[in-house]
Amino acid sequence: MYRVLIVDDEEPVLDSYEFMLKSTADFSLAGKARTGYEALALIYEFEPDLVFMDINIPGLDGLEVIGEVRKKFAPMVFILSTAYERFDLAQRAIPLGVFAYLVKPVSKRTFFSTLDNVREALANRVTEEGPQGDDEMERQFLQKTIWKEMSRDDWERYRERFCLPSDRGIVLLMELDRDAELWCKKIAELLSFRHHCRCDVMLNRGLFLILEDISRNVLEDQVTAILRDIDLPEGSCYYGIGEVRPGQLLYQSCNGALRELQNRLNRTDMLLRERMRIIQIRHKIGIAGAEEVKKLFRSLWEEIFTYCDFTLAKAKMAALFTLLIDDCTGCYGAHSGEEPPFNPAEEILPLRGLAEWETWASDAFGRILFQATLHRSGRFPMPLSKAVEYIHEHQAEGIQLSSVAEAAQVSSAYLSRLFSEHLKTNFVDYLTELRMEKAEKLIMEGKMNVKAVAFAVGYQDPNYFSKIFKKITGVLPTVYAAEKRGEG
């Protein structure tokens, strides 16, 4: 039976992990700690096999605790958990030999999958007193050594020990959403047809060390071709590539690959937020208050013009205005005698600079808003108007489609059809977006913690609320709060 210590300053997380551990056969709870100093004391007292370690805990943070005990308890397995991914934290965690890096809220599937991997690692672990085989030593070399600067003599010893064919190398990091061991092995095999490639899976990511003075662009073309050939599902894999470096400076290639990977993951989150904002604008325009929709539109374009170059941002805005014009006139969706009020692409693309864009956008969005209000006002069937009003008044309660339909005095099936035909959405999505919008406002006010916000908008499970919030906004509520305070 493997002993487990849970370190976290949030009681719901401690309780959740403890509950899930009880359903396992090979793991038992040794203790729970809420601060860094308490974690140190319990690690020395119980010498657990596995430690779930939150990073942001009072006193010593999680990484400082691991650094303190790692040399004395080398075989101990540490799994980091944190509210969101950050490059600097991952950079600090890798040389400490952390086994996995979990982003909260952690699903049952992820929790038990991680335990399966830990079980296998613990069964095959090599104690500090026992001899290390070549495979284990190479794992340590890839997981720890190349992440730190080496002396020339140390690098030469490693070259001789592992028969490394080149004095220079480049690092590829790859994150896959499932079956990382299987896919990384396949990718390593394909890379090895052309290069001397060493591979390991760490922090649930594949690390590939190519021992060769190869152009970074050439390697990227080869990786792209490999991912296409093995037919990985779109969006299931992201990667970052460093620069070629001398052996003793491979840590620079490691950091470069990690930084590029993190940037690509961040861009994915940005694109998700962009898509969800567009959906919200299209659902709310002509229905919600004018100032509310204008604020939503401004937050969207400000982020797009921040992340994208000016030409691409204008193209995105032209596409958005075309969608909005079609939503409120139908002139692009079918053969219609109604002419569009203006051509977005022709008016947007000639704009030069943010000042011109803002002046144009303010006037054009006002025109669209007026059109949408005319189009939608008075055109909703009375039951749908009653339903929308009821949802807005009772959104913080445990309302269901059936209770809303009862308030609107129609059947659930009929109300569901009205949502689809007139609002282009369904009841659940409409309610969820309404709740998330209120949650954003409450978080920005800074008067409630995440748990209180979850209860205030109608969710009894804060972890489930965090999951839904991230799905809608692209970030966890804790990250959103930190960004609004200027800490992100």
Short summary:
This protein is an alpha/beta fold and 488 residues long. The protein contains 21 helices and ten strands. The radius of gyration is 27 Å and the shape is globular.
Number of helices: 21
Mean pLDDT across all amino acids: 83
CATH architecture designation of the largest domain: 2-Layer Sandwich
State the share of residues found in helices, binned by percent.
Answer: 55-70%
The radius of gyration is 27 Å
- Total discrete domains: 4
CATH fold-level topology of the largest domain: Alpha-Beta Plaits
Report the structural category: alpha/beta
Q: Identify the CATH class of the largest domain.
A: Alpha Beta
Strand order of the largest sheet: 2-1-3-4-5
Straight-line distance between termini: 41 Å
Overall morphology? globular
Beta-strand proportion: 5-15%
Number of strands: 10
Sheet with most strands: 5 strands, parallel
Low-confidence stretches: 126-132
Q: Which features characterize this protein?
A:
single chain; 488 residues; alpha/beta; Rossmann fold; Alpha-Beta Plaits; 4 domains; 5-stranded parallel sheet; 5-stranded antiparallel sheet; 11% strand
Structural description of this entry:
The protein folds into four domains: 2-123, Rossmann fold; 134-267, Alpha-Beta Plaits, CATH 3.30.70; 287-376; 382-484, Homeodomain-like (Arc Repressor Mutant, subunit A, Orthogonal Bundle). The chain contains 21 helices and ten strands. It has helices at residues 11-21, 36-46, 62-69, 87-93, 108-123, 134-143, 152-162, 180-192, 216-229, 250-284, 290-307, 310-329, 344-348, 353-376, 382-394, 401-408, 412-423, 427-445, 450-456, 462-473, 477-484, and strands at residues 2-7, 27-33, 50-54, 77-82, 100-103, 168-176, 197-202, 205-210, 237-241, 245-246. The strands form two sheets. It has a five-stranded parallel beta sheet with strand order 2-1-3-4-5, with helices on both faces. Strands 6, 7, 8, 9 and 10 form a five-stranded antiparallel beta sheet that branches. Helix 10 (250-284) packs antiparallel against helix 11 (290-307) and helix 16 (401-408) packs across helix 17 (412-423). The chain is globular and about 80 Å long. The model is unreliable at 126-132 (pLDDT under 50).
